[in-house]
Amino acid sequence: EPEVTQTPSHQVTQMGQEVILRCVPISNHLYFYWYRQILGQKVEFLVSFYNNEISEKSEIFDDQFSVERPDGSNFTLKIRSTKLEDSAMYFCASSTPEGLAGYFGSLEAYEQYFGPGTRLTVT
Amino acid sequence: GQQVMQIPQYQHVQEGEDFTTYCNSSTTLSNIQWYKQRPGGHPVFLIQLVKSGEVKKQKRLTFQFGEAKKNSSLHITATQTTDVGTYFCAGPALGGGYALNFGKGTSLLVTP
Fold first, then answer.
1. Which of B4, B60, B9 has its CA nearest to residue B31?
2. Residues B88, A107: C-beta atoms closer than 8 Å
3. Confidence of residue A40 (pLDDT cuts 50, 70, 90)
4. Interface of B with A in 72-111 (CB under 8 A)
5. Distance between CA B39 and CA B72 in Å, rounded?
6. In this prediction, what percent of chain A has a pLDDT beyond 70?
7. A11-23 per-position pLDDT tens digit
8. Please, are residues A36 and A24 in contact by the beta-carbon 8 Å criterion?
9. E-strand spans in chain B?
10. Subunit contact A114:B43, Cβ cutoff 8 A
């Protein structure tokens, strides 16, 4: 079964450094997402990406963050000047198989496939 | 913004007992999804509910969507140790898009 992959599994960085988290979404999916989960807390939405541009973003996703699809397979999250409070598990997800885009009406959504996550530790 | 509240935060049951988690939204939801996250794992999609009053079953799991589409529940009959994990409900994050706004989750522990 196709799956979302993420690298690295664990990233340790010093405060103020930049990090890039990498994801390979499921190949025929059209929507990509980044979420984060601080230890023991709920999963929080950061940003969604569709058709090579940001579709939605939350209040968390400020100028410190950026996303990019540098080629046909990778989807990256860059965090500039990391802070201690950025320490969390970052999940990439994808949804909406190409053939099903527009299949559902306006009320329904598509299931999201999550990757295994990158644990970011800022020291 | 839209809030999705989930209770209880934790539930510890003996294997064979039933379990229910409840999800409430401050606003009407167009749909609600449920995810399960095993300890150390990532969220895995369980189901989506769309219609008012909808009830869906997956083996021992029963999902309900309230008539007003503001609340939902997940009920597990005769829990097994494989049911251990955190169950999250999630509604549309910002309205109109596919991003998800997760509840805080209910962590289920099942002891044999």
1. B4
2. no
3. confident
4. 88, 90, 92-94, 97-105
5. 23
6. 91
7. 999 999 999 999 9
8. no
9. 4-7, 10-14, 19-25, 32-37, 44-49, 55-58, 61-65, 71-76, 85-92, 100-102, 106-111
10. yes
